[in-house]
Design brief:
This protein is of the alpha/beta class and about 500 residues long. The protein is about 35% helix and about 20% strand. It is built from 14 helices and 17 strands. The strands form 3 sheets. It has an 8-stranded mixed sheet with strand order 7-8-10-9-13-17-14-15, sandwiched between helices. A 6-stranded mixed sheet has the order 1-6-5-2-4-3, covered by helices on one side. Strand 5 (about 115-120), helix 4 and strand 6 (about 165) form a beta-alpha-beta unit. Helix 4 (about 130-145) packs parallel to helix 5 and helix 10 (about 360-370) runs parallel beside helix 13 (about 450-460). The model has no long low-confidence stretch (mean pLDDT about 95). It binds ligand BES, manganese (II) ion and zinc ion.
């Protein structure tokens, strides 16, 4: 486990910034054509430099406006960054703040300093308090510092950042509350990094067995987490034929991984998260086209988010019972692989006609979703890079959300907004169900035009006995704005949801 950066707070007044022996000083500035409370003080200290920058419209304070100065007249700091916060009393929307926070984390890293000091005048976000603001800032700084840490690439630049110090905690919240919020945000950021690293690990290393080992490691690190791993023999005995059918063509053994966190009372019902863990998806016999097939190493991102969330939970230790499940296999073509038209049994007793071996995620998830019935869960969320159709519907911005319980869907959507890790609901109406009827089995694994919805319809056949939601993260787990790399989503959403269950 990588060491976290140290995030501290050390109250300083604006008029003392000039004498700060800082390696790198970051100052938030509100938008103004003239000098304001903050810039006035800075201007005096710098003998008029700030006014010049404002007059030249280089320092505007507009939201995300940035300015880097290798030195500032009268200031002891080695270098100074300014970041625009927008108009002083204008409340930001969550989204606006989120991009500001990302920009700030990028500055923190590109500053190439070991220690940075950040001075921010109060940032107001609509219906949020200062604790929330600092939680997101700390999360984005920690997760922004992520660098892939496997020895694949020999020459890698190493980020220097070790310490971030907030100099001003202005806002309507007690300092202790803000500090504990910073801690939580940072843990969520670290959870995202756990998730990113697993997802970025190449599929020849990140196999189902590798994931199983990660789960064992997690249990070693956090005594409140117990891990159990089922291999193919055990799954066969239980009757998880459908999950097993996906790994039939692979030399890698499929694994079913259970991570049980006990922080609540014994009788309190657990919340369960289930991750799709396809460590590589070739499509199987229904093979995928070659371009960008390397991205299918990310097909275990759902399970990566389960690991990241469980790590965060292990650190935060909420008074809750939470179970993380990973259904893992490698989807390969071979002479032993499942063929289109094959009919398999599921753990639930229903049979499935596999018309397309590339619709494999639902095949591993369905048995996992039946398995978790035994916990009599308070809620179950599965997380999966399930359909390309979801990327077409929602792009890389929002995770697809489908649920058999509107109350649960609402809570998840709300957690998405308040963690700046958004999900958007698609319908799961009965009229879509007939799209997956089969001539030769109880259910077909593909059908109809609405790919994301029919995939959820398939899963819904296995989740009748509890409140369940499905998160399709095909568009949000990697790619998009972050490029060909994992985003760490939806660890923030999942953690937010779980912590709100206390
Ligand atoms: N892992 C893919 C979905 C996917 C596609 C994720 C692109 C991320 C980016 C999934 O297993 C799959 O292949 N789904 C098929 C389903 C189809 C055969 C009904 C798809 O979306 O094309
Ligand atoms: Mn597939
Ligand atoms: Zn897949």
């Amino acid at each position: 486990m990588k060491k976290l950066i140290s995030i501290t707070t050390n109250e300083k007044k604006i008029n003392s910034l000039q004498s700060l022996n800082s390696d790198c000083l970051v100052i938030g500035i509100n938008e103004d054509k003239k000098l304001n409370d903050v810039t006035k003080v800075l201007n005096t200290a710098s003998s008029g430099s700030i006014k010049k920058l404002i007059d030249r419209q280089e320092l505007t304070g507009e939201l995300k406006n940035q300015l880097y100065l290798p030195e500032l007249n009268g200031f002891k700091a080695n270098k100074v960054y300014f970041i625009g916060l927008g108009k002083k009393n204008k409340e930001l929307k969550e989204d606006e703040f989120s991009t500001l926070s990302t920009a700030l984390s990028k500055i923190s890293i590109s500053a190439n300093s070991r220690n940075i000091d950040i001075f921010l005048p109060e940032i107001k976000v609509k219906s949020k308090n200062a604790s929330w603001v600092y939680k997101i800032l700390a999360r984005d700084i920690e997760s922004g510092c992520y660098q892939y840490f496997f020895d694949g690439k020999k020459k890698q630049p190493k980020y220097k950042l070790k310490k971030v110090n907030f100099l001003n905690l202005e806002g309507k919240d007690s300092k202790t509350k803000i500090i504990s919020s910073i801690k939580i945000g940072q843990i969520v950021g670290a959870g995202m990094n756990t998730s990113k690293n697993l997802a970025n690990t190449p599929a020849n290393i990140c196999t189902p067995s590798h994931l199983a080992n990660q789960a064992k490691l997690l249990a070693k690190t956090y005594p409140s987490i117990k891990t159990k791993v089922l291999g193919e023999k055990e799954m066969k005995k239980l009757g998880m034929d459908c999950l097993l059918s996906v790994g039939n063509g692979s030399a890698q053994e499929s694994k079913f991984i259970i991570m049980q966190y006990s922080g609540g009372e014994k009788k309190s019902k657990p919340h369960v998260i289930v991750g799709k863990g396809i460590t590589f998806d070739t499509g199987g016999i229904s093979i995928k086209p070659s371009p960008n097939m390397d991205e299918m190493k990310y097909d275990m991102s759902g399970s990566a988010s389960v690991f990241g969330t469980m790590r965060a939970i292990g650190e935060i230790k909420p008074k809750l019972n939470i179970i993380g499940i990973v259904a893992s296999a490698e989807n390969m073509p071979s002479s032993t692989a499942t063929k289109p038209g094959d009919v398999v049994n599921t753990l639930s007793g229903q049979t499935v006609e596999i018309l397309n071996t590339d619709a494999e995620g639902r095949l591993v998830l369905c048995d996992a979703l039946t398995y978790v019935e035994r916990y009599k869960p308070a809620s179950v969320i599965d997380i999966a890079t399930l359909t390309g159709a979801c990327v077409v519907a929602l792009g890389h911005q929002a995770t697809g959300l489908l649920s058999n319980d509107q109350g649960l869907a609402d809570k998840i959507m709300e957690s998405g907004f308040s963690s700046c890790d958004k999900a958007w609901q698609l319908p799961l109406w009965d009229e879509y169900q007939s799209d997956i009827s089969s001539k030769y089995a109880d259910i077909a694994n593909i059908g109809g035009r609405a790919g994301t919805i029919t995939a959820a319809c398939f899963l819904s056949r296995f989740t009748k006995s509890y409140k369940w939601a499905h998160l399709d993260i095909a568009g949000t787990a990697y790619g998009g704005r972050v490029g060909k790399t994992s985003s760490g989503r939806p660890v923030p959403l999942l953690t937010e949801y779980l912590l709100s269950r206390k």
